[in-house]
Each structure stands twice: as structure tokens, then as C-alpha cells.
Amino acid sequence: SLNYLHSANVMHRDIKPENILIEKDPRTEEVCQIKITDFGLSKIVAPNEVMMESCGTPAYVAPEVLIKKGYKK
After folding, report:
1. DSSP 4-36
2. Is-catalytic flag, 14?
3. pLDDT of residue 71
């Protein structure tokens, strides 16, 4: 999960629907597992490190990142 990654100081930096896989039980259609894929932009960060570079898919950037970058309406 993202909590586990963050506890290990790993930041994915490109979470979007295409990078989330959902596995369902074929008999019940119940969700069995959720997997995060595509760690190409991930980064191991030091505790309290502030990341300043822009990366990821622009359509899925968090609003608070856009505000910090000066793209506020």
C-alpha cells in the first residue's frame, strides 16, 4: 500500500488509475488485491526531505502541488 511505501521513504510520484491494478475473485467478483505498478518515477527520500522537481502525469498532479508552483487560478 502507499502507507507501506511511505513508511519505507519511497515516493511513487505518478499515482493514477492506469498504475493501479485490481484483482477480483472470478467466482465472487470480490476484490482480492490492489497492486500499484510503474515505479519509473519513484524516489527514495530522506526523512523531512522536500522534493521540488515536477514529475508525474500533469492531469493527476495534486492541487496543493499546483498551488505551490504558482498555477493557482
Report:
1. HHHHTTEE-----GGGEEEEE-TTT--EEEEEE
2. yes
3. 54
